[in-house]
Design a protein that fits this description.
This protein is an alpha/beta fold and 417 residues long. It contains 13 helices and 20 strands. The chain has a domain of 182 residues: D-Amino Acid Oxidase, Chain A, domain 2. Helix 1 links the parallel strand 1 and strand 2. The chain starts with 5 loop residues before the first strand and ends in a 16-residue tail after the last helix. The chain binds flavin-adenine dinucleotide (FAD). Flavin-adenine dinucleotide binds next to helix 1, strand 2, helix 2, strand 14 and strand 17.
Length: 417
């Protein structure tokens, strides 16, 4: 235990990814005294390396009856878009058992409703947040494409699209010719055409968005403790958090450490089945990327993302825990997949792996700890952490101030586990 002197704050936010930073910003803006704890200044976590899509059309949880049917073949192929590291199977077994239950029709429908309720706020909340933190130039309004490489893939996607439409998602179906007019580089890549989500926003640089949030926190004089939070303990005055080089007493704590939140939640009294879906990206430096909006060859599980000065190819899921090194064959599969769509890509300039914070029902964990309202949980956003960070921040602010939350909270509470 550290012998660092005791510092105090009103609200400690643990984690400075897009979720923790958005929460800290929102609370500081509302006049609270906030301290952020995170081991790095800007971060190279999921919030830096993602595909940059404000994915308001992504109402389906990861676990659905269709995924359940395809699961055995997906999991057994190490190069599939959803793979499992064999060494991680024993540790993952309880999570997988819950995931299978959450993929049944009734549970999947309920989870989709909970996700859609949050997604309904994503575009407006990002528009507002970007304006406040000066990140408007990073927000693009060019829509997103789901590519079907064969007519069979397009036919198979119709049930999925109908499900999305039933949640109010706007989608247009494009033939290969129309797709080629919109994105000439994809003219021959998708014989089955594409689904086009015309209203969906994306960001041109998730790392730059984080930098804007960090600058906004500095402008509100929010101090940052550059360290890992390791213990969390209730005291008579509030909650004491310690790490290797600090000791901080807070009246309230928000745990927002992404995929690393599980032990902190456990220390607070909440046993949350949080695991990670590892994801990868490759980047090619180029002044003008070959696509002008994010486009996902759906069967390959990644996005081609135009970013500032580079093309990023990001995605795929590998269930494999937090400790193992990146799997080289996953990066090779990603590179081969990218070249199947854009054959002229040279050797990539850089590679990255990061940790999606994933719960079995794909529904983020937002709300007070079972042990009391002085500890709030805000993690588990899986594939949608960028998309849902601003609405999560509004919910946490409402919980702190006692105001009405923007959505009914029951589906998101930690107590559901
Ligand atoms: C390849 C890929 C593509 C993706 N694409 C998209 C997309 O297009 N759209 C979308 O919405 N989402 C996407 N996601 C998901 C999204 O990136 C994540 O859901 C989101 O970044 C999670 O944010 P976070 O702030 O919860 O966690 P993180 O970004 O992981 O941040 C966690 C923070 O906690 C800190 N931390 C960790 N341990 C401790 C500790 N002990 N003490 C203090 N601090 C700690 C870290 O340093 C970091 O600051 C993608 C993810 C991946 C991997």
């Amino acid at each position: 235990m550290t012998d660092a002197p005791n510092e105090t704050t009103e609200i400690a936010v643990i984690g400075a990814g897009v979720v923790g930073s958005s929460i800290a910003y929102r609370l500081a803006r509302a006049g609270h005294t906030v301290t952020v704890i995170a081991p790095t200044e800007l971060g190279d976590g999921a919030s830096y390396g993602n595909a940059g899509v404000i994915a308001d059309y992504a109402v389906l949880p990861v676990g659905t009856p269709a995924v359940l049917r395809a699961l055995p073949s997906l999991l057994l192929d190490p190069d599939s878009p959803l793979a499992l590291r064999r060494a991680a199977i024993p540790a993952l077994a309880p999570w997988l058992a819950r995931f299978l239950r959450q993929s049944m029709p009734g549970a999947a429908r309920r989870n989709a409703r909970a996700i859609a309720t949050l997604l309904a706020h994503a575009a407006q909340d990002w528009t507002d947040l970007a304006a406040e933190i000066g990140a408007e130039p990073l927000l693009r309004r060019r829509g997103v494409l789901s590519l079907y490489e064969t007519p069979g893939q397009r036919a198979a996607a119709q049930a999925d699209l109908a499900w999305r439409r039933s949640h109010g998602v706007q989608v247009e179906l494009l033939g290969p010719h129309e797709l080629g007019q919109l994105e000439p580089a994809l003219r021959t890549a998708a014989e089955g055409g594409a689904a086009y989500f015309p209203d969906t926003l994306s960001v041109s640089d998730p790392g730059a968005v984080l930098a804007h949030l960090t600058a906004a926190l500095a402008a509100h004089s929010v101090p940052r403790i550059l360290d890992r939070a390791e213990t969390l303990r209730r005291t008579r005055e509030g909650v004491e958090i310690t790490g290797p080089g600090f000791r901080l007493s807070a009246s309230r704590v928000v745990i927002a450490a992404g995929a690393h939140s599980r032990p902190l939640a456990l220390a607070a009294g909440d046993r949350v089945p949080l695991e990670t879906e590892r994801g990868y990206h490759l980047e090619w430096d180029m002044p003008v990327p070959p696509v002008s909006r994010p486009a996902s060859p759906t069967a390959r599980g990644f996005y081609l993302c135009p970013m500032q000065g580079r093309l990023r190819v990001a995605g795929t899921v590998e269930l494999g825990g937090l400790d193992a090194p990146p799997s080289p064959h996953r990066l090779t599969a990603l590179e081969d997949g990218a070249r199947a769509i854009l054959p002229d890509l040279p050797t990539p300039d850089r590679a990255w792996m990061g940790f999606r914070p994933s719960v079995p029902d794909s529904v983020p964990v937002i709300g007070p700890s079972r042990a009391g309202p002085d500890i709030l949980l805000a993690f588990g956003h899986g594939h949608l952490g960028l998309t849902l960070a601003p609405v999560t921040a509004r919910i946490v602010e409402a919980l702190v101030t006692g105001a009405a939350a923007p959505v009914p909270l029951a589906p998101y509470l930690p107590a559901r586990f």
